[in-house]
Amino acid sequence: MEWLLILPLAIPGYIVAYAYTDFLEYSGAFQTFIRSFFGFSNPSEYYFPSIRSLGGAIFILSFSLYPYVYLLVKFAFNTTPKNLIETSILNQKNPFYNVILPLSRPAIIAGSALVIMETISDFGTVDYFAVETLTLAMFNIWLGMNNLEAASQISLIIFSFVIIILSIELINRRNKRFDSNVISNEYEFSKKISRSQKLLILFLCLIPIIIGFIIPVLILLNLTLSNFDFDELLYSLIITKNSFLIGFLGGASIVISSLYFCLYKLYDNSRVSNFLLPILGSGYAFPGVVIALGTLFFLGNLQFQINSFFEFFEFNLNFSFIGGFFGLILALTVRFNSIGLGSINTGLSRIPKNLIEANLTLGQSFVYGTKKILLPLLKSSILIGFILTFIDIIKELPITLLLRPFNFETLTTHIYQYASDEMLEKAALPSLIIIIASLLPVFIIYKTFIKK
Fold it and tell me: Where does residue 271 rank: exposed (0-12), middle (13-18), buried (19+ CB within 10 A)?
């Protein structure tokens, strides 16, 4: 059951939105069944809420993003110090409400903050449902009205809102300790319950799994099998290669940059390095549209300055940062760098400090110590960071859509185009490919954060 509860992480929210729209709209299977069963002939004879609404977007994003809270809170529950639980029981206090829940407060806040930031960042779901959000407004003003200045002003509002959320989360944790010198999960806090209560708990746990994963996958499978097109399969496999190329380049860029900055902080634990690392990892908090616009402005100005410099010497430099892989990979690196930093930092924290200190004491060079000592011990962390960023990149929609090279299709842009043209049956096959590819990091998350 534990690993089933994180399966919705394998499906991007916009794909869940496409699946439920096909299933719940007026001509969909569910409403068709209702009209047939009750004998209704037109929509005025019954009421059915529209899935393409603010409520529908909340419904989709809730069941797509809940694993962020679940993972962090479950980890906090499992690492509650055994001695505190035993003390609470000896004092005839409820260990859950008096110990476990208060100690899990940072995890609850962090998980909720992640969900808020992911909701702000969402583009595909709100765009398809036509729900007016700041992210969608920025996208429409930028591309629809070609007004970069107004789009920049909206991005500043989004930026400020995200900074406020991050500040509240940091202030909430400041000068507060929620840990213990001894952490053990050997004590299993359990309560005897009846068979009916067990069935009720099982039913409640199955609800998010069924709604967030099983139903969307079944809908997509049905659409794929009932509208199977061999040519579409071949084309989907071709653009899968493009998605994997972007994922590989972006993942490699993130792992290399993360490794460099984490090692820099390790060997030079100064105020500059302690300040720089959180800044480098803050890109995940911002919507992809904001990062794409920022990248476009940055590269545009950089290109203008370089061209002006060479024109001064009457030399025409015929190249562009924009419209190629460089801008796309740069934006993806900024967006997902926090995943690589987190994975490698976690790996470094598990390496005994005496190994690092011994290397420094013996006067070995930075390159030698990194190559012979640290890299072999960081292999698993580097691999996990690469795989997680790889999958996040192939699921990323707005950055790829806005900064991809001309006539370069990926799975996400292909799905988006079909959905925009209301051809959901065509979008089903590439959607399933993304889901299948995303199951690997979900399994890694289960092995890393839950099973262990």
Answer: exposed
Alpha helices in 227-324 (DSSP H): 230-267, 271-280, 288-312
385, 255 Cβ separation under 8 angstroms: yes
Q: Tell me which long-range contacts 90-99 makes (C-beta under 8 A, separation of at least 24).
A: 95/189, 96/189
Residue 439 lies in a domain: no
CB atoms within 10 A of CB 278: 12
DSSP code of residue 219 = H
Nearest C-alpha neighbor of 14 from the set 412, 289, 440: 412
- State the Cα–Cα distance between residues 70 and 76, nearest whole angstrom: 10
Report the C-alpha gap between 281 and 334 in whole angstroms.
8
- Mean pLDDT along residues 153-179: 70
Stated pTM of the model: 0.83
Residue 336 within a domain: yes
Instruction: Give the Cβ contact number of residue 130 at 10 Å.
Output: 10
Amino acid letter, residue 370: T
Instruction: Indicate which CATH number applies to the domain containing 370.
Output: 1.10.3720.10
Task: Classify residue 452: in a domain, yes or no.
Answer: no
Tally of structural domains, the chain: 1
The answer to whether residues 348 and 266 touch, using CB atoms and an 8 Å cutoff, is yes
Cβ atoms of residues 14 and 125 within 8 Å: yes
Residue 308 lies in a domain: yes
Pull the structure tokens for residue 335.
């967006």
How confident is the model over 27-31, as a mean pLDDT? 91
pLDDT, tens only, 171-200: 665 545 444 444 444 445 566 778 898 899
422: its two tokens: 């209301």
